[in-house]
Amino acid sequence: MGRIDGGNRMARWQMPDLPKGPLRTFNRELHALHGKAGYPSARRLYLAVERVVSHTKIHHAFTKPLLPSWGVVDVVVEQLAISARPRLDADAETDRFKSLWDEAHDSRLPSDTDVPSLPDGQGSAPVAGQIPELFRSRSVINPNRLIWDALVDLHGAGKPTSVPHVAAELERRGQLELCGGEGYLYECVKMTIKGAYEAGMSVHDFGLMNARKVRTAADARNELMAALLDPNSDADRVRKAHDQVTELHPHLLRPQQA
Question: Which of 89, 100, 227, 241 stands the most exposed, by the fewest C-beta atoms within 10 Å?
């Protein structure tokens, strides 16, 4: 992405009226970074981020009393850090704002939204007839499937499939928040391009390779469910299925912190 062009400094934007808390801290820090970059206009930022985010969304990220999507914050913070004087490390600033954003995001969520681990909290294998909590949780609702369905429907209708259009369609269906918000969509695009670059592959080939891995992981989960629900399953089948899921999904079996 390009650096913000020089020119006359713009007037600072009005800060929203927010109560003390993580969201207010996040917003004030965002305004402070905006000042270090010389208060560039939303239009200048829009051009600097190569039009991946509208200038309206950029302006709202600063002036609305709401937490903006991480996708917007990510690209804006990077450009502001590059244009700040003295210049700031873009990666360090992005990491700092991700922590601030996470705190603000978590402060508005109930504490029971974490994906639970297996019954004893240590990742031990279940027995036949026992359904692990990870299969009862909201993680069963696959957000990537919802995103894919929205993409396919938009494409089939001859409509654009850019991130803002997919986000709008998910919002219309009442599924955007369930999918992680618009920020998750931008993160998917960012990580896919980054992964393809680091692997020295095209995005298409990188996607095909990972699709095979995802299919293997899905098959492992399905086999575990089948083993648990089948009254004729023996302990060996359940153990093997569980070990396969553990190998492919180690993050689901981490013990919860108190």
Answer: 89
